[in-house]
């Protein structure tokens, strides 16, 4: 029996790359069948061409061809590139039923109204979600090495003696003990000097972005973002009608000398100098200082998204922007996703002292609060010194994996790529020196349970760069070489 779904799983279309039918014919036939069988609802919208192309691992032209044919044959209406909807009356239904006048008017589909913001977001071609159980999946820490015992102990102690004040609604800005621990941690580990009053705890990184967007931007404000970048996270800022301005980066991250030509009036810059995704770049000190200087001169804010701040493998890490900033321009966002686990979904912001009230008010209104017991347990885990011990222990393991990854890459894959350094964070990036079909390679590797995202899937403008991101956090050392060997042959055969 055919599966019925309102939200079609486009990636479930299966392509036979060695078959005799060209890919555009296969995709067309499968979508046509899905429409005729009602598995894709009438009047629903086809995904943007870039998105479907990325999901299927085919070129965008292939998808454009398919959409144009669907349009020509009457299965969809609209205009390719400006929203394409499944027709209300399909060609198969147009042959008039017995007794009906053959020239009965065909009702045009009425697009249902959604906000312009949602419309713009649905055009975004978001990259596929990561699969944490596959080898090489980036941004995932070693899930088999989580501090299970220590966490279990701290949790059971917490629940035996949890103070009543923490079991009600709790403070909107976060548990005071945790805010204190975070202030101490960012001070000691990253040189960011702040008071607990400047720290807010939120329910995941995206909430941090939404909160900062609420406080710092107005409708129509321009926000400089890294291109390529983690568009799924950045898109949260579009919810306020802000205009994202992608600025191309290199292996040293954002370069503020390009800001004037892209958005001289930017209200906000989002940067991840420690370890960028997907490029894995680390921003040199001079660029950090110039970026802050630019923000100072233009009266702009900076969100420093320091998502990979726990692990450093080469020398002393450079100070984050928030530690270098003397003008109170930087909003620092960090989380426990790599240092403990993404499953906690616990993030924090460190904001300039004079913004603390505005942030506190917004967080109260929008209720971004994270689970109080989770905050309590993490605060106790930190206070007992066990987070620091876990970071030290895992740092040694990740350093080995990082070195092995770099070595295997150089010996197994060849020189067609420019490699990022594995100085910090949990991923290594390889940027192709020529444009390649990285989406197809990435898609093909999923069948081998290898999750190596394509860099092109993170490009926001037409300036496409191609390559791959390799995570070493959650891949045991003995699986790194076999996974990279498979990757090497997939690239060679592409
Ligand atoms: C694809 C992808 N997944 C996950 C992350 C990390 O997000 P978080 O810090 O919320 O874990 C990033 C960061 O850029 C990313 O690009």
TrEMBL record:
**In Gene Ontology terms, what is one molecular function of this protein?**
DNA binding
Q: Which Pfam families match?
A: Aminotran_1_2, GntR
Q: Which PROSITE patterns match?
A: HTH_GNTR
Query: Which keywords does this chain's UniProt record carry?
Result: Aminotransferase, DNA-binding, Pyridoxal phosphate, Transcription, Transcription regulation, Transferase
Segments forming domain HTH gntR-type: 21-89
**Alphabetical list of InterPro entries matching this protein:** Aminotransferase_I/II_large, HTH_trans_reg/aminotransferase, PyrdxlP-dep_Trfase, PyrdxlP-dep_Trfase_major, Tscrpt_reg_HTH_GntR, WH-like_DNA-bd_sf, WH_DNA-bd_sf
List the SMART domains hit by this protein, alphabetically.
HTH_GNTR
Family, per the entry?
Answer: In the C-terminal section; belongs to the class-I pyridoxal-phosphate-dependent aminotransferase family.
The name of this protein is GntR family transcriptional regulator/MocR family aminotransferase
Please report the organism this UniProt entry assigns to the protein. Variovorax boronicumulans
């Amino acid at each position: 029996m055919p599966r019925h779904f309102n939200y079609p799983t486009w990636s479930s279309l299966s392509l036979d790359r060695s078959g005799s039918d060209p890919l555009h014919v296969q995709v067309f036939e499968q979508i046509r069948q899905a429409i005729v069988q009602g598995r894709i609802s009438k009047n629903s919208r086809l995904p943007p061409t870039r998105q479907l192309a990325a999901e299927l691992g085919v070129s965008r032209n292939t998808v454009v061809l398919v959409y144009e044919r669907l349009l020509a044959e009457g299965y969809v209406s609209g205009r390719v590139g400006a929203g394409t909807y499944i027709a209300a009356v399909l060609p198969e239904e147009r042959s008039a039923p017995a007794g009906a006048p053959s020239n009965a008017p065909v009702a045009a589909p009425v697009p249902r109204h959604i906000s312009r913001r949602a419309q713009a977001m649905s055009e975004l071609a978001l990259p596929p979600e990561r699969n944490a159980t596959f080898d090489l999946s980036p941004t995932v820490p070693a899930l088999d090495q989580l501090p299970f015992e220590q966490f279990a102990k701290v949790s059971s102690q917490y629940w035996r003696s949890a103070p009543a004040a923490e079991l009600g609604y709790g403070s909107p800005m976060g548990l005071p003990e945790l805010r204190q621990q975070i202030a101490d941690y960012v001070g000691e580990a990253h040189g960011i000097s702040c008071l607990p009053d400047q720290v807010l705890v939120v329910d995941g990184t995206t909430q941090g972005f939404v909160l900062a967007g609420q406080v710092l931007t107005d409708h129509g404000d321009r926000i400089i973002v890294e291109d390529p970048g983690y568009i799924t996270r950045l898109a949260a800022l579009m919810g306020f009608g802000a205009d994202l301005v992608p600025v191309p980066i290199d292996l040293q991250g954002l370069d503020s000398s390009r800001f004037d030509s892209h958005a001289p009036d930017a209200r906000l810059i989002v940067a991840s100098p420690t370890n960028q995704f997907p490029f894995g770049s680390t921003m040199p000190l001079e660029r950090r200082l110039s970026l802050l200087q630019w923000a100072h001169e233009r009266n702009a804010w900076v969100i420093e998204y320091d998502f990979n701040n726990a692990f450093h493998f080469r020398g002393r890490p450079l100070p984050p922007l928030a530690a270098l900033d003397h003008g109170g321009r930087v909003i620092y966002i960090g989380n426990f996703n790599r240092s403990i686990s993404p499953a906690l979904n616990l993030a924090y912001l460190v904001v300039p002292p004079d913004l603390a009230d505005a942030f506190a008010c917004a967080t109260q209104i929008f209720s971004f609060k994270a689970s109080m017991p989770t905050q309590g347990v993490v605060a106790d885990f930190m206070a007992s010194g066990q987070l620091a011990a876990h970071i030290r222990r895992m740092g040694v393991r990740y350093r080995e994996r990082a070195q092995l990854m770099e070595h295997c890459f150089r010996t197994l894959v060849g020189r067609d790529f420019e490699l990022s350094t594995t100085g910090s964070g949990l991923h290594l990036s390889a940027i192709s020196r020529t444009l390649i079909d990285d989406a197809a390679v990435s898609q093909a590797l999923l069948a081998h349970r290898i999750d190596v995202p394509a860099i092109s899937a993170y490009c926001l403008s037409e300036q496409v760069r191609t390559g791959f991101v390799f995570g070493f956090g959650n891949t045991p050392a003995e699986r790194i070489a076999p996974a990279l060997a498979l990757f090497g042959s997939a690239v060679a055969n592409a």
